[in-house]
Amino acid sequence: MTNIILFGPPGSGKGTQAKFLAERFGLLHVSTGDLFRYEMGNNTPLGQEAKSYIEKGELVPDSVTIGMLKNKLDANPDVKGVIFDGFPRTIAQAAALDELLAASSAEVDGIISLEVEEAEIVQRLLLRGKDSGRADDQDESIIRNRISVYHKETAPVFNFYDAKGKGHKIDGMGTIEDIAARLNTTVSAL
Ligand code: UDP
Ligand code: MG
After folding, report:
1. Containing H/E element for 148?
2. 86 lines ligand 1 (CB under 6 A)
3. Which pLDDT value is given to residue 106?
4. What is the rounded CA–CA span in Å between residue 90 and residue 159?
5. For 165-184, b where at least 16 C-beta lie within 10 A, e where not — what string?
6. Which of 7, 14, 33, 61 is 20–30 Å from 181 (CA)?
7. Over the stretch 47-64, which tens digit does the pLDDT of each residue have?
8. Is 89 known to be catalytic?
9. Ligand 1 midpoint to CA 22 (Å)
10. Does 54 contact ligand 1 (Cβ within 6 A)?
11. Which helix (H) or strand (E) holds 7?
12. Which helix (H) or strand (E) holds 99?
């Protein structure tokens, strides 16, 4: 299996680029944010619980997120590998992911961080909020909270894998095509 974490702050382009990579390399794209939005759209108990955190820009508790992720992986046992988009978001989630993969004799092969300036991120998210209608993209104070949660809780996940020699940084500024080309080069070399 080839398992890749696409990493970076909200609005750094993970979802857009993960779709391209999944198609190009034949990998399963798993976005925990999309899974939560699906559950919220169907108003399931999981969706209702997640909504109370997401609408404040906070993280859904690790146990909930890890359980949902495990279900998704269990439902797709025959994949060549996975692109994780928006997960893991805490060190505890990273440790749980390593444990889940190890049970199938697999591991995280690389973590690729999309480096984007903060002013650009806020602009992108506000624009996305207009198009997608996502409530958490329409309020600048929620966006700022998500960025601050990213710096406090999520950024250390990169160092966790970088310390094992698995970290890669990509310039996430520029056109979607340019960034996709940079990612293809990095993933091909993993
Ligand atoms: N979220 C979470 N854990 C996850 C994925 C998402 O808690 O593993 C919540 C969190 O509140 C986040 C929101 O869902 O702000 C939207 O996440 P998504 O990854 O879709 O947004 P992005 O960061 O890509 O803009
Ligand atoms: Mg996303």
Report:
1. helix 140-149
2. yes
3. 96
4. 11
5. ebbbebebeeeeeebbebbe
6. 33
7. 999 999 999 999 999 999
8. yes
9. 19
10. yes
11. strand 2-7
12. helix 91-102
